[in-house]
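Supplementary Methods, section 5.1.

A reviewer requested that the exact input to the structure prediction be made available. We therefore reproduce it here, unchanged from the version used in the analyses.
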Amino acid sequence: MKLNELRDNEGATKSRKRVGRGIGSGSGKTGGRGVKGQKSRSGVSINGFEGGQMPLYRRLPKRGFKNLFGKDFNEVSLGRIQAAIDAKKLDEKAVIDVAALIAAGVVRRAKDGVRVLADGELKAKISLDVAGASKAALEKIEKAGGTVKLPEAAAKAE
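The structure derived from this sequence is encoded token-by-token as follows.
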């Protein structure tokens, strides 16, 4: 078998119906839409209309809300950072920030910042510059002799 011999199975693809190409085609004039009425016109969308009965989407209660000020953080565990340091992808002597984590492949893209979580063990003495960290993560980092710079701490100092 060659690539140029590849074909779909017989009957797998159906040729499209060319509508409105003369009466002789069988689907000319009204183009298979029937005669008159709302559905024969263009631009009609009546999905969800239940003939005057209260539609399902209005019968069901509204739930939840979208927080306009909510932040979407990248969550990174200490174990993941330690693994990147062990693999020589992160330099433990330098300040580890979002750019360094992206370069090391720990984080794919910067959202609203990075939040460090306490999963895993941390052996290296590191200095982090991140958007947030859990209390347990802060304790583990300080126990290993590292430091964490958080933006809210800087904002309170001003």
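The longest strand covers residues 74-77. These observations are discussed further in the main text.
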